Amino acid sequence: MNDSGYDYSVVRGFAYSALFWLVVGLIIGLWMAYELFDPSLNLTPWLSFGRLRVVHTNGLGVGFGLSGIFATAYYMLQRLTRTPLPFPRLARAQMYLFNLIIAAAAVTLMAGMNTTKEYAELEWPLDVGVVIMWVMFAINVFAILIKRREEQMYISLWYLIAMTVTIAVLYIVNNLEIPVTLFKSYSIYAGNNDANVQWWYGHNIVGFIFTVPILAMFYYFLPKATGLPIYSHRLSIVSFWSLIFAYLWTGAHHLMLTPLPEWIQTVAIAFSIFLIAPSWGSVVNGYYTLQGNWEQMRTNYLTKFFILGITFYGLQTLQGPLQGLRTLNAFFHYTDWVIGHVHMGTMGWVTMIISASFYYMIPGIAGRELYSIRLANIHFWLILVGQITWTITMWIAGIQQGAMWKATNPDGFLMYSFLDSLTALYPYYRMRFAAGVVYFAGILIFAWNIFQTVRQAPQTTETAEA
Amino acid sequence: MGINSKPLLFAVVSALVILVGTVVTVFVPMFMPSTQPVSRFVKPYTAIEQEGRDIYIREGCNNCHTQTVRPLRTEVLRYGEYSKAEEFAWDRPFLWGSKRTGPDMNRIGGKYPDSWHYKHMQSPQSMFPLSNMPPYGWLATNKLDTSNSYRKCEILGYGYSEAEVQQQIADYKQRVTSPEYDSKATRDLVTPPALQGELTEMDAIIAYLQKLGRDVKAMEAQP
């Protein structure tokens, strides 16, 4: 094995996959957003909202999010251990398998092969594929950590280890099912237990895909991009362990006021409130890192991606626990407010951090400057304005919807029919579509900028011996 | 810290740390009967209702419709009695959902006649011009596949013999194709002539919807 030369081919492959699934997932998102105020777009069973919604969530959450995570993980692992990838061929095979699974997921979900468990909708043969793919990733993660030439593991590596371990546990436990045919299976859990397992999974898959590895990127690429060391190592240690400890108790805040035993709901509320502390530990660590260098928000095009990204993370982690409180949950749950909440995290925090990480990483491995900083700035403003308009529109829609569901006349009867509460939302749904278009334009510029950067790159010599 | 230079130890400790909350809030409740109480009044789905449930799953109805009425005054006013744990003892997977783009379904059974559902599934906009629900008329053009019905009921532990499953299918077919069926006119309107003497996917999903919330009435009627 060569001592120098890191293997970046798999980093590039996953980065391109991320951009591809990002564009595809957003097109589906726009289509669905339109369907919600114009149902004539439900042209065929394959394009009906009920089937497309899971293609959207899987395509972006897994197709885009996870391939962005794999791209940056393979990069950070090699840089932080100063060790070339131990099994580059295995990593490339994992990349092909990953894309095959996502493509098969899109096709089978559109065909209605769907277990309904949110973010675990894939039928059992694809679940088996996912587990194999994850093991292939984990082999490289632990092999490179064992062979590493850097004694201390940096913060980002802790988060990557936690992700690798936790996703494996979550995915296997929630996808235990008994096959009926190749395309149909039933959960081994029933009723309350199925719900409890599902939301333990659902909450933590968000935690360990949309939080933990994104924090790994944040802790690595923020200091790299700004040239400033992380403010407090101790704070990052406390934040890490308390975050991964508390996260797993909170799934039932998705099941407030359902028939799930009340004590599980109450424990979930308590730990949700506690989670504000470790979440804000990272937020504070990020802000203080910039101490005395805030002019970088103007002078360094990458800094604002990271700082706005961590700000949305901070808002997200305040909003989440508050929504878990019974009284507020009774009002907001099942409304479009929650859709706004989720999209602040995904369109704000996750996409901002992955964008900036790619902007830092890809020119580096391509061996040249970014194609256009100006375009990167336009990308930033479009996705910022698009996302904020999108989420605020949905919050207002959710408040109106929740209020209309609860409104009663002086005689005690309901003031609005369900249909009244739906049709009142159409103006918001149109607004949301428009905001989505703005956001999508920003993403197209992002993809174009990366494409141009790579296309014009000279042949890189940085390839490891296989 | 020493652990930061020991990756395998780090992984093991991380796994233990994440398992504490998991064991307490998820694994332990699985072995407590109080987590999922059962009631003799809540019956398993019939083979046809189960096929309908699987179509509900296939079409992702749960993405817009919840199946749990919360113990809140306006919610009970709108939908009916709030949901009880016992009602879900047979539900694999659970279908509570997380978003109400459409109304809750947990008390839909018996609320409208079958004819209402045939018409509404065919074209929600024909009944509610401003509804955004996708039309599902095409379900009536698909003959219901019952080839796995027995295997499904067997896996789900419903306790029916193969003959009982066949009988349930035959009985339901008899019911909806009979001239006596109270929703026959509407069913014939949405079902292509070639399938009017067969069971369709539309028949099954309506059978499922009509089952929802039915048993809880008997359960609640107990002193």
TrEMBL record, chain A:
Keywords: Electron transport, Heme, Iron, Membrane, Metal-binding, Respiratory chain, Transmembrane, Transmembrane helix, Transport. It is found in: Membrane. It is a multi-pass membrane protein. One of its GO terms (molecular function) is cytochrome-c oxidase activity. Its main location: membrane. PROSITE patterns: COX1, COX1_CUB. Signal peptide: none annotated. InterPro entries: Cyt_c_oxase-like_su1_dom, Cyt_c_oxase-like_su1_sf, Cyt_C_Oxase_1, Cyt_c_Oxase_su1_BS. GO terms for biological process: aerobic respiration; electron transport coupled proton transport; respiratory electron transport chain. The chain crosses the membrane at residues 14-34, 54-75, 96-116, 128-146, 153-173, 199-222, 234-257, 263-289, 301-318, 338-360, 380-399, 433-451. One of its GO terms (cellular component) is membrane. The keyword Lipid metabolism does not apply. Residues 8-466 form the Cytochrome oxidase subunit I profile domain. It comes from the Bacteria. PANTHER family: CYTOCHROME C OXIDASE SUBUNIT 1, CYTOCHROME C OXIDASE SUBUNIT 1 HOMOLOG, BACTEROID. Belongs to the heme-copper respiratory oxidase family. This is Cytochrome C oxidase Cbb3. It comes from Chlorobaculum parvum.
From TrEMBL, chain B:
Pfam families: FixO. InterPro entries: Cyt_c-like_dom, Cyt_c-like_dom_sf, Cyt_c_oxidase_monohaem-su/FixO. Its EC number is 1.9.3.1. PROSITE patterns: CYTC (PS51007). Keywords: Heme, Iron, Membrane, Metal-binding, Oxidoreductase, Transmembrane, Transmembrane helix. Residues 47-213 form the Cytochrome c domain. The chain crosses the membrane at residues 7-32. The keyword Transmembrane helix applies. GO terms for molecular function: electron transfer activity; heme binding; metal ion binding; oxidoreductase activity. It comes from the Bacteria. The keyword Transmembrane applies. NCBIfam families: ccoO, PRK14487.1. This is Cytochrome-c oxidase, cbb3-type subunit II. It comes from Chlorobaculum parvum. The gene is ccoO.
